[in-house]
Design goal:
Layout (H helix, E strand, L loop, with lengths): L5 E6 L4 E3 L2 H8 L6 E5 L2 H8 L8 H8 L27 E8 L4 E9 L5 E10 L1 H19 L4 E4 L2 H9 L13 H16 L6 E3 L2 H4 L10
């Protein structure tokens, strides 16, 4: 019987670890610059997924063919990420962003790991505003990193949200009513977390004008 393989997709539709070629293929077919590799055990796959693909792919193929298996998309001057991010941006980081259809309107936010492009968390949609989503995304990332005991930078393209987080207060003008009650409970929980927890996590402004859209962007502009 053929041995089971575990497929790591670093750069694809949904980065992750897949237990069959069929599942892996769904994530890479038609995806420009897909980065993936099979491993014999889940342990090997998990170790690889949490590392740079350059360790497992680029060197081996380059030695055999003189060509790299990695996409041309990542800058040649970086070997720590599959994303085309500038040299000054830290790869060991979470980028967060929010999207809102109307303002207020259906709002959602997410966080993306810059080494792999993997979506680490996603919340929504819930009736709210973009600034609230950006605020909640940063707090979500802070709480997650502290829970996991992980140290890394957080990037956000919202000066407003970063300011609110530093002040430990979501200074929204959105009306609290039946429609927004659930959202305001989340805001209160986030503010409570900020007031009860200490952290040293760097929260940096993603400079959109210089670096392009933040990697967590929903692409709906």
């Amino acid at each position: 019987m053929p041995k089971n393989k575990f497929y790591v997709v670093w750069h694809g539709v949904n980065p992750g670890i897949y237990r069959s070629w069929g599942e892996c293929k769904q994530q890479i077919s038609g995806f420009d610059g897909a980065v993936y590799k099979s491993f014999s055990t889940m342990e090997e796959a998990e170790k690889a997924y949490n590392s740079s693909p350059y360790i497992y792919i680029g060197k081996t193929k380059q030695e055999k063919t003189g060509k790299s298996a990695l996409p041309a998309n990542p800058p040649a001057y970086r070997n720590d990420t599959v994303l085309p991010i500038p040299l000054e941006v830290r790869a060991e980081a979470l980028a967060v962003d929010a999207a809102c259809s109307g303002n207020p309107g259906p709002m959602e936010y997410r966080g993306v790991y810059l080494r792999t492009g993997q979506e680490i968390f996603h919340f929504g949609p819930l009736h709210g505003t973009n600034n609230i989503g950006e605020f909640l995304a940063i707090v979500h990332a802070l709480a997650l990193l502290k829970q996991k005991g992980v140290e890394m930078t957080i990037y956000s393209d919202s000066r407003t949200a970063i300011s609110w987080v530093r002040q430990k207060k979501c200074k929204t003008k959105l009306e609290r009513n039946v429609r927004t009650e659930e959202l305001f409970k989340l805001i209160e929980r986030a503010e409570k977390w900020l007031n009860e927890n200490k952290y040293q996590t760097p929260i940096l402004k993603w400079e959109t004008e210089r670096w392009g859209e933040v990697p967590a962007d929903f692409g709906r502009k």
